[in-house]
Amino acid sequence: MSEAIAIHDVHTLDTRFEPRSWPFAEENRDRIAAHWASVVENKPALFNGRVLLLHRWSIADGVFSGGYLMTDYASFLAWRDFGHPGAERWNGFAMAALTSAEGHFLLGEMADHTANAGAIYFAAGTPDPSDVVGDRVDLAGSVLRELEEETGLGPAEVSVEPGWTILVHGPRIAMMQRLRSPLPGAALQARIERFLAAEPNPELTRMHVVARLEDIQRARMPAFQIAYLEHALGH
């Protein structure tokens, strides 16, 4: 993506579930089905579950507001891979910006069976029905759930720092929440990698520590995440 990356620090998320149809998914069912068949031929572990997609968003007075519709993962993936056609929609997701006691960031390397094998990310996931509470989309809960699923760290093992950093990069909107572990970086990395080694099919293969700008593996990270790390490390 060649678009500029906008960074906004906000204190609150106000995200709502607003079910409605998605013309792209309805009008391209055959193309979507063919694309999905080709994807799962190479990645048979992928599952075509239900996911949430932003259809509106705004930022005002330190609040990020957004509305989500629901679709299936096959349609979402085709929309992404076809270049985000149709009326504007956004992939709006929350990420767990995990830090150690001394402020080093820890990111995971995606396993071979995932859609983004080899890439290095903070723990995150596309919002799904489990994140819907009444008419709200609970992205703070999504952050803690994804962190525990991917790293084994439960909510009691981290402290949540106030506020969010929003990164807007074309049709991607990453909502970063800083979570701090009381463990130093090396111990935290070892703790998570022990969990990964014991899992039968972990989403991550290993952890990477970013303590300074030179530690950023730019070829294996998306541009918005690089921008966040530079922003957080004071560049």
Structure report:
- This protein has helices spanning 23-27, 29-42, 73-81, 139-151, 185-198, 223-232, and strands at residues 6-10, 12-17, 50-60, 63-72, 91-99, 105-110, 120-121, 123-125, 132-133, 136-137, 159-160, 164-169, 172-180, 204-210.
- The chain contains six helices and 14 strands.
- Helix 2 packs across helix 3 (73-81).
- The strands form four sheets. Strands 1, 5, 8, 11, 12 and 13 form a six-stranded mixed sheet that branches.
- The protein has one domain: Nucleoside Triphosphate Pyrophosphohydrolase, CATH 3.90.79.
- The protein has 235 residues and is an alpha+beta fold.
- The mean pLDDT is 95.
Number of domains: 1
Overall, the morphology is: globular
Please tally the helical runs, counting DSSP H or I stretches of 4 or more residues.
6
CATH topology: Nucleoside Triphosphate Pyrophosphohydrolase
CATH class: Alpha Beta
- Sheet having the most strands: 6 strands, mixed
Any idea what the CATH architecture is?
Alpha-Beta Complex
CATH homology superfamily name = Nucleoside Triphosphate Pyrophosphohydrolase
Q: Determine the structural class based on helices, strands and strand pairing.
A: alpha+beta
